[in-house]
Amino acid sequence: MSGLPAWTRRLVGPVVLIVLILALDPTEVLARLSSIHLGWAGLAVLIGIAQTFLSAWRWRYTAGRLGLDLPFVSALAEYYLAVFLNQVLPGGVLGDATRAWRHASRSGFGSSDAGSAMRAVLLERASGQLVMVFVALASTCVILWRMNSSMLLPVGAVGVLSALAAVMTARRLTSARPAAAPSSLVPRILRDARLALWDGSAIVVQVATSTLIVGTYVLTYLIAARAVGVEVPFVELAPLVAPVLLAMLIPLSVAGWGLREGAAAAVWVAVGMSAAEGVAISMAYGAIVLIGTLPGAWLFVASGYEPSARGSARRRVLRK
After folding, report:
1. Where are the beta strands (DSSP E) in the chain?
2. How far apart are CA 238 and CA 250, in angstroms?
3. What is the pTM of this model?
4. Residue 290 belongs to what domain range?
5. pLDDT tens, position by position, for the chain (320 residues)?
6. Phi, then psi, of 240 in degrees rounded to 5
7. Which helix (DSSP H) or strand (DSSP E) does residue 57 occupy?
8. How many Cβ atoms from other residues are within 10 Å of residue 6's Cβ?
9. I need a surface site. Which of 83, 91, 166, 205 has the fewest CB within 10 A?
10. Are strands 314-315 and 68-69 parallel, antiparallel or unpaired?
11. Which residues pair with 254 in a beta bridge?
C-alpha cells in the first residue's frame, strides 16, 4: 500500500469515509454536521492557533539547540505554510518536508547549517510524535480498563517497557559525545538528537512543550464534540481521542481523512457508544483543523511571499 501513487492515495480517504457514512446512519451523521455550533467551532479554531504558535516555538527552540538562529516570525509563517500543505497533500508530511527544504535552502545547500536545518525539523516532529504515541498507549489502557478487557495487562506492560526502552536507548545513543562537527551522517544525527532533545534542560522543555501541543490536539477534538452536540463528559471522551488521532499518521490519505473516521467508529463502538457520533465528531475536527490552517493558504498564494530569512540560519555559539 505504501507504494500507491499519490493520486490513488487521495482516493483512499474519501472512499473509506463514504463507505463509513453509508454503513452507519447517514441521517445522524449529516444532522449533527448540519447543526454545528459555530461558537464551539470558533473556540476550537482559536485553540488551533495556540497550537501552531506553540509548535513554531518548539521548532525555533530545537533549531536554536543546533546553533541556528530562526526568528519566531519566520518560524510561524513557515509552520503555517507547512500545516496547510499537510492538509491538502497526500501523506501528511509533505508540508514538513517543504519546511525543512526551505529552511535548508536559506542556510545554503552544502553547508553544515543546511544539514542542521533539515535535522531540526525532523527532531522537532519526532518530539511531538513520541509524546503522542505514549499518550495513545496510556489512553488505550484506560479504554481497556473501562471495557474490563483482559488485554489491559499486556498493553500496559508494552507501554511501560516501551517507555523504559526509549529512555535507555536515548541514553545509550546520546551518551557518547562525538566531535563538534562529525563527518558522517549517523554521528551528526546522534549529536543533534543529544543537543536538541536530551542535554541539560532540553528534555524537560521538549517533553513539556510537546505535551502541551498534544493537549491542544485532544482539546480541539473534545471541543469539536461539543460543536456537533455531543454532551458526553470530557473525562469520558478524552481517552478516546489520541488512539483516533494516531490513525492520521498512516500515509494513505490526505490529512488522515477517512482513516481518522474509521478509527473513531471502531473506538466508539468498542466502548459502547454510537459509531455515527464518533464519525461526526471526527469529521467536524477535520474541518476545524483545515480552517485553522488557512493562514498558510494565504501565505502560499500571496504574491511575493518570502518570510524574512535574515538570521534564519546564522550560526551562534551555544552556551553549554
Report:
1. 68-69, 314-315
2. 21
3. 0.84
4. 8-300
5. 445 555 566 677 778 788 888 888 788 888 888 889 999 999 999 999 999 999 999 999 999 999 888 899 999 999 999 999 999 888 778 889 888 888 888 766 555 677 888 899 999 999 898 899 889 888 888 888 877 766 667 766 766 676 666 666 666 655 655 555 555 666 777 888 888 888 878 889 999 999 999 999 999 999 999 999 999 999 999 999 999 998 888 877 888 888 899 999 999 988 888 889 999 999 999 999 999 999 988 888 774 444 444 444 444 433 33
6. -85, -15
7. helix 38-65
8. 11
9. 166
10. antiparallel
11. 90
Residue 134 lies in a domain: yes
Nearest to 75 by CA among 85, 65, 60, 61: 60
Residue 3 falls within a domain, yes or no?
no
The full DSSP string for 84-137 is: HHHHHSBTS-HHHHHHHHHHHHHH-TTSHHHHHHHHHHHHHHHHHHHHHHHHHH
Instruction: Provide the number of structural domains found in the chain.
Output: 1
Answer yes or no: are the C-beta atoms of 152 and 141 closer than 8 Å: yes
Residue 244 near residue 264, CB atoms below 8 Å: yes
Residues 6 or more apart in contact with residue 223 via CB below 8 angstroms: 40, 41, 43, 44, 47, 288
Q: DSSP assignment of 264-278, as one string?
A: HHHHHHHTTS-HHHH
3-state SS class at 215: helix
| Residue 318, in any domain of the structure | no
Q: Closest by alpha carbon to 274, among 287, 264, 283, 288? A: 264
Q: What DSSP designation does 5 have?
A: -
Which residue type, as a one-letter code, is found at position 272? G
Classify 139 as helix, strand or coil.
helix
Closest CA to 125 of 142, 103, 141: 103
3-state secondary structure of 310: coil
* Cα four-point dihedral sign 232, 237, 240, 241: positive
Does 305 map to a domain?
A: no
Whole-angstrom Cα distance, residue 168 to residue 175?
10
